[in-house]
Every structure is written in C-alpha cells, then in structure tokens.
C-alpha cells in the first residue's frame, strides 16, 4: 500500500478538522490486512468506565481516500480513532460509514465532521436517527455522565444506500450494501474487495450475544445472503475478527433456537413474560452478556410471532 506524503493543503485540512485531536491519544488498532485497521471494542455494557467503547470500529486506507467504518460510542473515542488514522496516513478521510444507528457505533461521528467528508448510511438511517436520537442522548447522559456527552451530536448520513454502493478509495473499492430490517431497521455491511474483509456491523455478533432491535424472521432469512458474500474474514459489530463464513455458525444456532422456542410458546398460549424467561436458555453458557439481552430478545421475538 502506497500512502501519499503530506501536502500543504492536507496539513491545513487536518488542522481545521479539530483542535482537540492533538490532545487525544491514538486509539489502539490492529492491521488485519494491508491498509485495513480495526479496534475491537470491549464485550461489556456501555458505561463511564469504558467510555462507551464497546463496538468494533475501523478504517480502510486507499491511495486517494480513507473510509471510516463506525466511529465509536463517544466523541472522545471518535477523536482517538481520528488520531489513530492520522498516525498512519495523510490520505484524506472522504467517507464515514455508519453500519446502523445505535449509539455505540455512531456517537463518535462529530469528531469527523469536516469539509470533504461524506457520511454514508442506509436510506432509512436518517429517520432512525431523528426518531431515536433524543432518546439515545438522554440514556447516554444517565449512564455515562455529562463529561462524555459534551460534543456528542447526531450526525445523519447525506449519501444514502438503497441496494449497494461502490466507493472508490484509490486502488481499492469498498461495497456498501443495505439490508432489509434485521438486527435493526438500517443495517449496512462494508466489503473491501482488495482484502476480502467484511465489516458486518451488528448483523454479526461473535461471543457477545446477538441483540435484536429489528426482525428476527428477516435476520434469519438474511443469513444465507450474508454467507454468500465472498469474504474470507469478518469484522463483527461485537467480538473478535474471525474467519468467514464459519464465524456465523453460533449466531445462526442462537437465533434459530430463539425463534423455535418462541414460536412454540406463542402457539401454546404461554404468556409473554414466562416465554421470554425460558426461551433459548440452552444457549446461556455460550454467550457473554446473555442475562442482559436474552429476555429482551425473546420479548421482541414474541411480539413478532404473535402476528403470524
């Protein structure tokens, strides 16, 4: 990978992008393929102790442009990601891609607002951000405190994806693909053709229990289409970078088990609270944060299957 040398224009652009980044340490990142960098978030609930840095985020460097994939759970993390990029290349950041609208993936967006930077996302993402953004900000303030909330703002995409979109970075192309309602109502994946690395966002969870905020039926239906993507490795939304498509096996089993259990209970007339407490309990030892999310997942699934 050939990285361009700094020009005077680039120096000026970096300087005006933020004065704060110089004060931030660079986020630890790992180069998983030439020009492809990832920071693996903690498998924890967001808190002031971890600065909300619980999602996997990263960037891809081409010869003429950098694409950022998700910006983290706070502006502080976003600035640290920006510092990590600038420690590795002077190539301008042209694209910031949000894989969906959950705070741990997009609350760092404000760190990247600058001339020449285009925010990219699902065609339903602006509405999702407008609808839920105030609720997320309120929840963030209660769990994280005012210090981290400073500078956080909802930055919606201006380049919208309905189907797929090819972004040219210079000697490499990334494909942004929009998905039906699944994990959420605004999921996209990012596939780098050069390295065959797939940034799957929260369509894929590894070790961290999957979190349902969309449609379990659509999510299960989407798995075969996900498997068909010609990737060799995947960066999940949460959990370690892994080989593809083997990495999807545990998630397929969990979602299938949850759907089977809830369908059975709905048909049998089992009350929603009782069904939610018992669904997919065979999976308890296989996932981290199971107790935090499984009952919520089951409740959401029950509401969907009631209307079959």
Note the beta-strand portion.
Answer: 15-25%
Largest sheet: 7 strands, mixed
Tally of extended strands? 13
- In helices, the fraction of residues equals 25-40%
The CATH class of the largest domain turns out to be: Alpha Beta
Separation, N- and C-terminal Cα atoms: 52 Å
Mean pLDDT: 92
Give the number of helices. Answer: 9
> In CATH, what is the homologous superfamily of the largest domain?
Ribonuclease Z/Hydroxyacylglutathione hydrolase-like
Structural class: alpha/beta
Radius of gyration: 19 Å
CATH fold name of the largest domain, please?
A: Metallo-beta-lactamase, Chain A
Q: Give the overall shape, derived from the CA principal axes.
A: globular
- Tally of separate domains: 2
Tell me what you see in this structure:
The structure is a single chain. With 308 residues, the protein is of the alpha/beta class. It has two domains: 237 residues, Ribonuclease Z/Hydroxyacylglutathione hydrolase-like (Metallo-beta-lactamase, Chain A), CATH 3.60.15.10; 61 residues, no CATH class. Helices cover 34% and strands 20% of the residues. It contains nine helices and 13 strands. Strands 1-2-3-4-5-6-7 form a seven-stranded mixed β-sheet, with no helix packed on it. A six-stranded mixed β-sheet has the order 8-9-10-11-12-13, with no helix packed on it. Strand 12 and strand 13 form a beta hairpin. Helix 6 packs antiparallel against helix 7 and helix 7 runs antiparallel to helix 8. The radius of gyration is 19 Å and the shape is globular. The N terminus is likely disordered.
């Amino acid at each position: 990978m050939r990285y361009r040398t700094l020009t005077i224009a680039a120096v000026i652009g970096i300087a005006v992008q933020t004065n704060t980044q110089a004060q931030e340490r660079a986020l630890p990142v790992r180069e998983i393929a030439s020009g492809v960098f990832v920071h693996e978030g903690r498998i924890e609930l967001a808190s002031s102790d971890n600065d909300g840095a619980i999602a996997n985020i990263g960037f891809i460097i081409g010869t003429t442009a950098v694409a950022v994939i998700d910006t983290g759970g706070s502006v502080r993390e976003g600035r640290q990601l920006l510092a990590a990029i600038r420690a590795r290349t002077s190539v301008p950041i042209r694209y910031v891609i949000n894989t969906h609208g959950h705070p741990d993936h997009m609350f760092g967006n404000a760190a990247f607002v600058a001339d020449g930077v285009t925010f990219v996302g699902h065609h339903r993402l602006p509405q999702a951000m407008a609808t839920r953004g105030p609720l997320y900000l309120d929840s963030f303030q209660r769990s994280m405190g005012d210090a981290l909330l400073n500078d956080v703002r909802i930055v919606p995409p201006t380049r919208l994806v309905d189907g797929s979109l090819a972004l040219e970075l210079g000697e490499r192309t990334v494909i942004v693909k929009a998905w039906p309602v699944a994990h959420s109502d605004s999921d996209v994946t990012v596939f780098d053709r050069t390295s065959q690395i797939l940034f799957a966002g929260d369509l894929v969870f590894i070790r961290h229990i999957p979190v349902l905020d969309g449609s379990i039926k659509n999510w299960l239906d989407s798995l075969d289409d996900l498997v068909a993507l010609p990737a060799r490795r995947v960066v999940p939304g949460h959990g370690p970078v892994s080989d593809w498509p083997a990495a999807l096996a545990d998630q397929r089993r969990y979602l299938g088990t949850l759907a089977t259990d809830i369908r059975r209970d709905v048909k049998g007339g089992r009350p929603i609270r009782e069904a939610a407490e018992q669904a997919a309990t065979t999976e308890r030892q296989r996932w981290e944060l199971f107790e935090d999310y499984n009952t919520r997942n089951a409740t959401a699934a029950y509401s969907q299957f009631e209307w079959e």
